[in-house]
Amino acid sequence: MQFFRKRYILLFFQLLISSVIFAQAKTARPGSFTLPPYTKFTLSNGLTVYLMEQHEVPVIHVSALFPAGAIQDEKKAGLASLTADALLFGTKSYTKSQIEEQMDFLGASVNTYAAQEYAAVQVSFMATHQDKVLPILKEIMVNPVFTEEEFVKKQKRLAVELDQQRESPREVIGTYFNSFLYGDHPYGNPLSGTKATVSALSVADAKDFYSTYYTPNGSAIALVGDFKTKDMRSKLEKLLKDWKKKENTAIKAKEVPLPLYQKNRVLLVNKDNATETTFYIGAPGISRNNPDYVAIQVINTVLGGRFTSWLNDELRVNSGLTYGARSSFTPLKTNGSFTISTFTKTATTTEAIDLALEVVNRLHSKGIDEETLSSAKNYIKGQFPPRFETSGDLASLLTSMFWYTFDESYINTFQQKVDELTTAKAKEIITRYFPKENLQFVLIGKASEIQDKVKKYGEITVKQITADEF
Amino acid sequence: MRITLVLLMLIGTRLLAQPKAADVKTFTLNNQMKIMVLEDHSIPNANMYLFWKVGSRNEYPGITGLSHFFEHMMFNGAKKYGPKMFDQTMEAKGGSNNAYTTENVTVYTDWFPSSSLETMFDLEADRIKDLNFDDKMIESERGVVLSERSTGLENSNFRLVHEMVKASAFMAHPYRWSVIGYESDIKNWSKADLQQYFKTYYAPNNCVAVIVGDVQTDNVLALAKKYFEPIPAQAPPRPVHTEEPPQNGEKRVFVQKDVTTPNVLVAYHVPQTQSDDYYALELLNTILSSGNSSRLYKELVDKKQLATEVFSYFPQSIDPNLFYIYAVSSKDTTSTELEQAIFTILDEVAEKGVTENEIQKAKNQKLMEFYQEMETINGKANNIGTYEIFFGDYKKLYEAPAQYNKVTAATIQEVAKKYFKKPNRTVGIIQKNVEQ
User: Where does the Peptidase M16 C-terminal domain lie (chain A) (predicted)?
Assistant: First the structure.
């Protein structure tokens, strides 16, 4: 529900200021927004490298991406995620606490995580510290040792965290939804695993996973920030020259077909002490390389992608049923999902669901008029540049370009593609891509009060939020 | 300034070439509204942040949460732009917005392509001058805010325990209630309360407007004169004079909830942002919980494995407020063991102080945070406004390094000794069975 943090209560966003000097304003790029120039090359070990200079603040951001996401977990749910965490548990040259002490002392930060399809290492640091930080980054990527003691500590903590997450419906509903929608397809794998699967993992599993999937060939690294491209290129070539290519590691998502449901289905997750129902209504969506991706985003802006979107307008503004309602497409490499998400107090559960369905039906029956379309186009164009404002944003964009095989034309032709969308084309897009039947409902709430009422939406399955499964 | 030397060692001479305070242009309109402008042409976008000096500290029992509810009502229609039209007009012009309310301030944030600047002035001026309270909108907005309140409590244990600890730590000062307010007040305040609030607090003389981005300063000033200056000033609101009496004994509060493991929140009374101890406390906050090598994380989560997470929180504040430490127990750790471990760490700082290495680390971490804030036009706008409100003058931003540099191991030890005392603390605990 982060999109509509609209009018929220501020708790933690106090600013921490330590210096007095404002950063220098960059040169204006009047008119349309284009991606700053960058250099792309491949090292002899197969690693794809992107370098982009940005000199507004004396900082460098790194984003590295490996084909090591949860889709590779198979039966060992949580392995990709734990392996990514464990990259920081010590390397050949640094212990875990040396990495932490050194990085913290420099004011640098490092974050490693696995997503559904890939794993990432993200590092930020002051440009003057590059010769101290880059060798640590290299060790994390190339020489992790997976210390047993640290692995077991994390494993134990994770077992408690997995229970703690279940105290917050918002934390777990996405996992239930992916599992319900994708079934046995690897996109349905629960990213953090379950208590049972996580406790069965061993250091040997992580080492195997690492050596299979963390290979320079098939991976990419992007550096964006305050450096000279030529110097950084030779620095990286030297730094990573010993990282060996691995042959024949054909890595791809297992060829499991997506389940195709020919009916509405409901997963009701019972939470005894719930005072509200948190729900997703969804269906299969699109893959990231869909040629209509931009047009779909424009239409989704109208349905549930901004404050005045039809979903938020009906469920929040007109009826006061919720603090926020939205819809979104989550495109992945070979597939993706579409979801409507919101929450409402237990007593108004079906009222809110009915209203959401009514809005979707209206999109199909009435379509979008010229004025609404034009407003959505202006909105999506106007909000586009700030999404790529920081070096960190740009570094993530570059590794996304690598993973999803697109290039700067996505940025540079974005406005034009938005402008090209007509109401006639919009109608086609709606019919083709916006689901209105065979919907998959996931509801987390108090089953004793809503189970009978929500049966009407489809074939119902009931689970307990406290059970160790998704 | 000695800090210059430290910065030079850290990051070379580059900083010295950066713009100075003079790059922020400030103007005061005839109605005493303050306008601050910083040009930044890095993206074809700009923002407008309006800081209003009103928050939950200005409320009283019966209207708790009204500042926040009012913030919502600011989007629900005025004279020229009726209900829904503020958002519709802004979004059709490529803009988006948000707003937040704290104990101290209410802040409205507009983000837009710079070509839409004048529309933003028109929209803001309309609601500042002629806000309208539509009965239907008031009622649906009550539902929205009740949903916001309940979803916070449903999804966050911190929300729950934070509310309880504040209510206990403060007996007199309005910081005792949460920003969102009591459920019964949300259900019962009236249109007249809203009208009174509008007249009292939403006067131009109670506002600081910050505009940053791809704009021309002269143009911004001309628009401010055209749209904002005709709005009449009002008598300044009465000051909040209630002072919290000293706390002379530990307070404890328990909440029963079906949690996996106990949650512990410890809060100590500390002075306001404009006090001499602010910078030492802020560095101590960083030393305690910023990064995995910080004292609390390293000891509680990593070494002793008593907690699955921990953080400290020291909010900027107009009046004396609280310094918080929050931790969630690991499996088989009782709340007593966890809180004792927290006290041991705090006592150690009070008894032995911190190391030079830790102080330098904290300064480096803050410098990096600063750069990341200043990388965006929104970070810049928020910094300027926050300094203007909480430190009394945005130029204090330029004194901050010298202030941080004055902080020594001895001053950190002093503030730890002064504030981290048992009689000065409130402890809140959420657990399954409060009798345990």
Answer: 201-378
Yes or no: say if B267 and B425 are a contact pair by the CB < 8 Å rule.
Answer: yes
The domain B251-431 belongs to what CATH superfamily? Metalloenzyme, LuxS/M16 peptidase-like (3.30.830.10)
The stretches of B330-429 forming alpha helices (DSSP H) are: 335-352, 356-373, 377-390, 400-406, 409-419
Inform me whether the C-beta atom of residue A199 falls under 8 Å from chain B C-beta atoms: no
ipTM of the complex: 0.92
Phi, psi (degrees; rounded to nearest 5) at B409:
-55, -35
Contact A140, A408 (CB under 8 A): no
CB count, 10 Å around CB of B363? Answer: 23
Topology, domain B22-227: Cytochrome Bc1 Complex; Chain A, domain 1 (3.30.830)
**Which is nearest to A392 in space by CA: A153, A13, A118, A59?**
A59
Beta strands in B136-238 (DSSP E): 207-213
pLDDT digits (tens, 9 = 90+) for A267-323: 999 999 999 999 999 999 999 999 999 999 999 999 999 999 999 999 999 999 999
A246-255, A367-376, B287-296: the lowest-pLDDT one: A246-255
Q: Which two tokens stand for residue B400?
A: 């901050």
pTM (predicted TM-score) = 0.92
A3/B contact by beta carbon, under 8 A: no
Backbone torsions φ then ψ of A238, nearest 5 degrees: -70, -45
Do B30 and B229 touch, CB atoms closer than 8 A?
A: yes
Please report the residues numbered 174 through 193 in chain B whose beta carbons come closer than 8 angstroms to any beta carbon of chain A.
178-180
CA distance A220 to A228: 19
A126 in B contact zone (CB under 8 Å):
yes
B71 reaches A (C-beta below 8 A): yes
Give the per-residue pLDDT at A251. 55
Q: Please report the domains of chain A, with CATH numbers, ordered by start residue.
A: 37-239 (3.30.830.10), 265-464 (3.30.830.10)
Distance from CA of A244 to the nearest CA of B (A): 31
Dihedral class, residue A458 (left if φ above 0, else alpha if ψ from -120 to 50, else beta): left
Q: Which residues of chain B have pLDDT under 50?
A: 1-19
> CA-to-CA distance for A277 and A446, rounded, in angstroms?
7
Instruction: Compute how many other C-beta atoms are within 10 angstroms of the C-beta atom of residue B153.
Output: 16
